[in-house]
Amino acid sequence: MSLKYKLSARTSPHDLDAEAKIYAGAVNSGTLSMEEICSNIERNSTATRGDVKGIALAFANYLIKSLTAGNSVYLEDLGFFRVGCSSKGAETEKAFTPANITRKYINFQPKGQLSDVKAKITFEKVGKSTDAAVVEQ
Asked: Whole-model pTM?
């Protein structure tokens, strides 16, 4: 099954004076809820939906505790989770304070089978482009 994409004309955020170019954007085909995922796992295992949901919530809580403690978390055939940050520069190490940290984020790096999925993805164009006049030129 192909992933769907649409085209749109945009300027580069790094060069706002540049001419617009055509870029692809993935089209989301839906969102699965926790209940739907748990029900699907229940149908394919001996665990009940409640068991699956309980384990998933316990896992999420442990992941949060691990990341806030400064640990990276590695899940075989899924990938690595780790916390990262961005900051404003300071003239000296002494002048740098935690106030220089401008952004915190959770980084996920797929590994194993999840990373291998990228090679299997194909794409299919759908719908009208957001700026047909630019796309057609």
From this structure: 0.70
CA atoms within 13 A on the CB side of 116: 5
Residue 42 gets which letter from DSSP?
Answer: H
Which of 23, 12, 17 is CA-nearest to residue 130? 23
Q: How far is CA 127 from CA 11, 15, 32, 64, 136, in A?
A: 21, 28, 23, 39, 14
73-84 confidence digits (pLDDT tens): 999 989 999 999
Whole-angstrom distance, CA of residue 102 vs CA of residue 67? 18
State phi, psi for 49 to the nearest 5 degrees: -60, -40
CA distance 46 to 35: 17
Amino acid at 22: I
Helix axes 34-43, 49-68, angle to 10 degrees: 120
- The pair of structure tokens assigned to 112 is 């194993």
- Residues 76-112 have pLDDT tens digits of 989 999 999 999 999 999 999 999 999 999 999 999 8
